[in-house]
Write a structure and sequence with these properties.
Strand content: 15-25%
Shape: globular
CATH topology: Rossmann fold
CATH superfamily: NAD(P)-binding Rossmann-like Domain
CATH architecture: 3-Layer(aba) Sandwich
Largest sheet: 7 strands, parallel
Bound molecules: nicotinamide-adenine-dinucleotide
Number of helices: 14
Radius of gyration: 21 Å
Helix content: 25-40%
Distance between the termini: 52 Å
Structural class: alpha/beta
Order of helices and strands: HEHEEHEHHHEHEEHEEHHEEHEHHH
Strand order of the largest sheet: 3-2-1-4-5-6-10
Number of strands: 12
Length: 366
């Protein structure tokens, strides 16, 4: 007697698939999909990815999210079971897994990361293995798989503190932490690696992102100030004069979309700042109060010795690629308030899912 095994197709599954299941799903995937292109997003289950993935699906792309899903597997709002989405639960440090997942992929967006200083410092060895050591293998595997475009999410923190008002892409880099240093070193590894011109290499240096996304982060400047104003009606401002560059998450998504299609000659090996709203922390706090229209919000000033000021200039992306921001910091504040009032942010002050460091501690990664 012949045993017949029915295996539930990936698009009817609620959980991310394992790598073993991926190969089988892939053959089905090809039959079903008539996608614009297949994009693999490492770390696509994070804050930026949770806004980016649904957008790329909507644009007619097939998307593979390659992630350990530390913040949950179903972070794509209405698109968790989209037929063109594959959620692969795997580690970028697993070279074999990376190689398999890259088969048939046209573009990679590399977001996977321990993505802020405090969570990096929690376990520097783990941080280095993910943020630095895994990088060359990923790039090499992408080249070998015939990927045509590799987009790297670096950071505007590579510049460190600068006195001049306009920090452009060619400014001296003085990263202040290992998180920022490894971002810079990965940029260099990407550019120093083999180059036969077949794979467009793109480096993006975003400002601090703000606004609501289904995998929410409440450990980023605008988002922190907004949630404190909403929940506690009180904003604590440490110092206040320090400048912070900001970028609405909707513009972050638009920027990735732009870099997926921009002509090779305009982007290959050319780093781009992306961040248009340089404001002081105090100005952001005032903006939060004004945008929420809540006169009861108290502003509390706390002296600090940390007066680090960051600010970037994004003329290059404006002038060479015609990119203008369409979404303001005020829009980001409103989006968080809306999500909060709709009950989309559960236990916002204590839920580890919204705070990278707390979540890593909960997963005993520290
Ligand atoms: N959010 C910002 O303000 C900002 C600003 C500048 C640059 N960036 C960069 O953009 C990228 C995305 O940022 P984010 O805020 O979405 O980060 P995030 O922390 O929300 O997401 C990172 C994702 O990477 C995954 N991940 C971590 N280690 C992994 C591994 N070994 N293998 C597979 N997956 C792994 C996590 O599970 C998580 O889903 C990061 O590289 C970050 O450094 C972010």
């Amino acid at each position: 007697m012949v045993a017949v095994r029915f295996i539930r197709p990936w698009f009817l599954r609620t959980a991310a698939i394992s790598l073993a299941e991926f190969e089988q799903a892939e053959s089905v995937f090809k039959v079903f999909m008539n996608a614009k292109q297949t994009i693999l997003i490492t770390g696509g289950g994070g804050y930026v990815g949770s806004a980016l993935v649904p957008h790329l699906l909507e644009q007619g792309n097939a998307v593979r999210v390659f992630d350990l899903f530390w913040y949950g597997e179903r972070v794509f709002a209405d698109d968790n079971d989209h037929p063109a989405l594959l959620r692969i639960k795997a580690d970028i440090r697993d070279q074999q897994a990376v190689q398999k997942a890259l088969l048939g992929v046209g573009a990679v967006i590399h977001l996977a990361c321990i993505s802020n200083d405090p969570s990096f410092e929690l376990n520097p060895k783990l941080g280095k293995s993910i943020n630095h050591d895994a990088f060359p293998g990923l790039v090499q595997a992408a080249r070998e798989a015939g990927v045509r475009r590799f987009i790297y999410a670096s950071s505007s923190s590579v510049y460190g503190i600068k006195a001049e008002p306009d920090v452009r892409e060619d400014a001296e880099k003085t990263p202040l932490t290992d998180y920022s240093l490894f971002k810079l070193q990965c940029e260099q590894m990407l550019m120093d690696g083999a180059d036969d011109g077949a794979m467009t290499k793109i480096i993006i240096r975003p400002a601090t992102v703000c606004g609501y996304a289904p995998r929410m982060r409440l450990d980023l400047t605008v988002n922190i100030l907004t949630i404190h104003a909403l929940v506690n009606h009180r904003i604590r401002i440490f110092g206040g004069a320090q400048l912070r560059p900001n970028l609405n998450i909707q513009d972050m998504v638009r920027a990735y979309e732009l870099f997926l299609d921009a002509p090779h000659a305009k982007v290959h090996g050319i780093p781009y700042n992306v961040g248009f709203h340089n404001y002081s922390v105090e100005a952001i706090a005032r903006m939060v109060k004004q945008t929420l229209g809540d006169e009861t919000i108290q502003m509390e000033y706390v002296p600090t010795s940390d007066n680090r000021s960051y600010h970037i200039n994004s003329d290059r992306i404006r002038e060479r690629l015609g990119f203008e921001p369409c979404h303001s910091v005020e829009d980001a504040i409103r989006s968080i308030a809306e999500a909060y009032h709709q009950g989309l942010l559960k236990d916002p002050m204590t839920n580890p899912l919204y705070y990278n460091i707390k979540r890593m501690q909960q997963l005993t990664l520290g």
